[in-house]
Amino acid sequence: MKNNLRNNEIKIIPLGIKAEYVSNIFMQLKGLMFSGKKNLLFDFKKERTAGIHMLFVFFPLIVVWIDSENKIKKIRIMKPFASFAKGKARYILEIPYDAKIWNKLKRIRKLKFSV
User: Which of 7, 31, 50, 80 lies 20 to 30 Å (CA to CA) from residue 86?
Assistant: First the structure.
C-alpha cells in the first residue's frame, strides 16, 4: 500500500486527520502565527510545561496537550488574538476548529500516531 504522507506528516488515527510533525524549536515558537489553516503536532521530546498563545493566529484552534503515554491531559478551544493557555505535555496538537473533531476529542482519552 502506498504511503500518501509527506516526510513530516503524521496520522492522528482516532481523529482521521494528518498533522505536520514539528520538533524544531524555532518552528514550535512560530506555530501557526501568520499561517494558513493546518494541523500541527509539536514534539517536545519530553514532558514539560508548554504554553500556547494566539497572538497573530487569525482563526480559532482546538489545542490538545498530550503526555508521554499519548493520553490527553487537556483540550481547549482557543480564540484568535485572545487566548493563552498552558499545561504539562510531551506533545501538543493544534487543529483549526472543527465541530466534528471537537466532539470526537471530548470522547477520546488517548491518541495514536502513525507515520
Answer: 7
